[in-house]
Design a protein that fits this description.
Layout lengths: L10 H5 L6 H25 L6 H12 L2 H11 L3 H25 L3 H20 L6 H34 L5 H40 L3 H8 L69 H11 L17 E3 L8 E3 L32 E2 L68 E6 L5 E4 H5 L4 E8 L10 E10 H8 L7 E6 L4 E5 L9 E7 L2 E2 L9 E4 L12 E7 L22 E6 L6 E2 L4 E8 L5 E8 L4 E3 L1 E2 L9 E7 L5 E11 L21 E8 L1
Helix pairs in contact: 2-5, 2-7, 2-8, 3-5, 3-6, 5-6, 6-7, 7-8
Length: 704
């Protein structure tokens, strides 16, 4: 008869199997999961089409995460959000499978195996839904990984059971206790030896997968295919003016481009000032067109009409050259800026005569003054390194401000180290073999057709300097960059297809099913809207959309900048919503006027009496930047010097000298006024649903 004080027999004791500690079971489950995930990484290394289990599940999480959480992660983590997500998935997977190991340690092995099977089913479904992944192979790999994980877990649990079993065999005598102690040490070593072997196996699988990966077909093609010689130049009516080696060269729209009849502008779409609506485009009742500038209209007509081939029109208008005092008040120099409107005859550091207003915020009543005279003739320091933008012949003629230490270069480098921001929903970069790739033109067109990569390369190509920005870029954020893109205007592709009446929206679709849509009129209203195959004189990097992508000046990337493009589809405005629209972002995404302080920053070492630069960038693509002003502490707004630019579709570098006259904390603020005369609003507005607003400011400390 059992002693009433004895504990009731466990399932393990009834079955004759010794119980295993919960910690050992948890460790066994974690290592089993590590082996399973390592197997998935190995298969990804062998195959270019089957994603790892971590990436596959991460893509599901990305697709079903509420938009507000996505916006928060982008604003606070930027490009690191993907790393945080994948690391989080790995940790969560290890923890859950650790619980499966505890179940196995409590002799509930069938339940533990079932748990691994469910994980395999989830992984298989996640991988199979990827458009680039073969469905059957994805299921097989995921279930095989789950089987390996379950087997490794049960093996480790069995070794832990042996250790506990030997510990229970000692009967209490001194000799038996000593023998049992030696056996316990040996069997524990055996368990930890198996555990170490499982960990080494998991790491080896990951390392082997990375080692077998090698260059993809896309990366090999980038090495083979240099960009073709550019045979055309952007139209003079384009707001960006393009990027050419000869800034005075006249440019023309490729011959044969016609404006489709009956293209309707969706209600609420704003028409940029100075843009003439081509004949045949219908404007809904209530849409007001701003007063046109005569010179701008002439240029737009030359750049968008079918007669442009025979009448190229005048070259891009720039501001007159004026004598401008140097920033240190010593030697005057000649300066030219392309961001001033043609009628302005003042220097870039003079305030324009018009009153500063804002459209979304109350107007500021502060005044703008000239930069205060410097008390020292010492110039702020400049870098001795060659400007990073000067390596591109398209912008080498510009007097940029790249020499200011810490300022964003006029053209963002992509090699040897990529500095251009990347925000998209792809956790791994799609690797597309251009020889097997096709671009389809479909939807409301008369003649749908396909293009190969070689056919696009053979088309008349041109270079375009365009700044892109992410809608989730916070005030002062770094999710904005400038590049020289090589490609062909979208209206060339649409002309061949024959756009039908009612085609109000152009939708781009990526190979991974990401979509973005924008008004069809953006391909005809004078801005540069292109199919790009090159970036900074290189074929598109794989991370930025190789083999082809869409670039549209003046629109946030979430409504236009489709990378890894496989289809251009024309539809009605209400007939389709791009990926981000159902997730809470606006369907219309014009880039707002913004400015940023690059230097100094919170970590800068500043001293009283030591001259330094206050510098940064400002952008308002298609409108351009008319002026940038800064304010330090309680002083009046001071207008800054602007660097030269290719056209109104790129950002503008700005700077002003500053010599701190007291130690302690100083607050620096910046605001920009665009080419339409609109100044940034002061108050902060979050990025969701259509872009952040507000003045960027930096607090710096000055030592004695």
């Amino acid at each position: 008869m059992p002693d009433p004080g004895d504990a009731p027999p466990t399932e393990a004791s009834r079955s004759g199997r010794p119980a295993v500690s919960g910690l050992a079971g948890f460790l066994a489950g974690m290592l089993g999961a590590a082996v399973a995930l390592g197997f998935g990484e190995l298969i990804e290394g062998v195959s270019e089409t089957i994603p790892s289990l971590v990436i596959a599940v991460g893509e599901v999480v990305t697709d079903y995460t509420p938009g507000s959480i996505v916006s928060f992660s982008i604003e606070n983590l930027g490009a690191s959000q993907k790393t945080v997500l994948t690391v989080g998935i790995v940790i969560l997977s290890l923890a859950i499978c650790g619980l499966f190991g505890r179940l196995a340690a409590r002799s509930r092995r069938v339940t533990a195996v079932a748990g691994f099977a469910v994980f395999g089913l989830i992984g298989g479904w996640a991988a199979a839904r990827n458009p680039l992944s073969p469905a059957l192979a994805s299921w097989i790999v995921a279930l095989a990984a789950a089987g390996l994980g379950a087997a490794a877990t049960l093996l480790l649990v069995s070794r832990a059971s042996v250790a506990v079993g030997h510990a229970a065999e000692a009967d209490g005598s001194d000799d038996d206790e000593a023998t049992g102690r030696r056996e316990r040490v040996g069997t524990r070593r055996s368990f930890f030896g198996y555990a170490g072997g499982a960990a080494a196996t998991a790491l080896s699988l990951v390392g082997l997968g990375r080692g077998l990966r090698g260059p993809s077909a896309a990366e090999q093609a980038r090495e083979i295919y240099a960009l073709p010689t550019r045979t055309t130049q952007p139209a003079p009516g384009a707001t960006g003016g393009g990027a050419t080696t000869d800034p005075d060269a006249a440019v023309a729209v490729p011959e044969g481009i016609e404006i489709p009849e009956g293209i309707e502008i969706p209600e609420g779409i704003e028409i940029p000032e100075g843009i003439e609506i081509p004949e045949g485009i219908e404007i809904p009742e209530g849409i007001e067109i701003p007063e046109e500038d005569a010179a701008g209209v002439a240029a737009d007509q030359a750049g968008t009409g079918s007669e442009a081939a025979s009448d190229p029109g005048p070259s891009e208008t720039t501001a007159p050259t004026v004598t401008e005092p140097s920033i240190d008040g010593t030697q005057p120099e000649q300066a030219t800026t392309t961001t001033q409107p043609p009628e302005e005859v003042t220097a870039t550091t003079q305030p324009p005569p018009e009153t500063t207003t804002t459209t979304t915020q109350p107007p500021e009543t502060t005044t703008t003054t000239q930069p205060p005279p410097e008390t020292t003739t010492t110039q702020p320091p400049t870098t001795t390194q060659p400007p990073r933008s000067s390596t591109l012949p398209q912008v080498a003629h510009l007097d940029t401000l790249d020499e200011v230490p810490g300022i964003s270069p006029y053209v963002t480098p992509i090699s040897p180290r990529n500095e251009f921001y990347r925000i998209d929903v792809a956790l791994t970069v799609p690797q597309i073999d251009p020889d097997n790739w096709r671009l389809r033109i479909t939807g409301l067109v008369d003649d749908p057709y396909e293009l190969t990569y070689q056919e696009i390369r053979a088309m008349p190509l041109a270079d375009y300097a365009i700044t892109l920005s992410c809608v989730s870029n916070p005030v002062g954020g770094n999710l904005v960059d400038n590049a020289v893109w090589t490609g062909v205007p979208l209206n060339v592709l649409l002309q061949r297809a024959g756009v039908q009446r009612g085609a109000q929206q152009i939708v781009g679709r990526s190979v991974d099913d990401f979509t973005a849509g924008f008004p069809t009129t953006a391909a005809y209203d004078g801005r540069n809207a292109i199919l790009a195959i090159g970036m900074n004189n290189e074929p598109l990097p794989t991370r930025h959309g190789f083999p082809a992508r869409i670039v549209v000046a003046g629109l946030y990337g979430y409504v236009s900048a489709v990378k890894w493009l496989e289809e251009i589809h024309l539809t009605t405005w209400e007939g389709f919503d791009g990926y981000w629209v159902p997730r809470g972002w606006s369907k219309r995404g014009p880039i707002k006027t913004q400015s940023r302080i690059d230097v100094p920053n919170r970590n800068s070492s500043l001293k009283v009496g030591a001259p330094t630069w206050v510098a940064g960038v400002a952008w308002a693509p298609t409108r351009g930047i008319r002026r940038v002003e800064t304010k330090i502490d309680e002083e009046d707004w001071v207008q800054c010097e602007l660097g030269e630019v290719v056209g109104n579709e790129t950002w503008v570098q700005w700077r002003r000298p500053w010599t701190p006259d007291r130690h302690g904390s100083h607050l620096i603020q910046v605001r920009a006024t665009d080419g339409a005369g609109t100044t940034q609003g002061r108050y902060r507005i979050p990025s969701k649903p259509n872009g952040a607003e507000g003045w960027h400011n930096v607090s710096v400390n000055v030592s004695r």
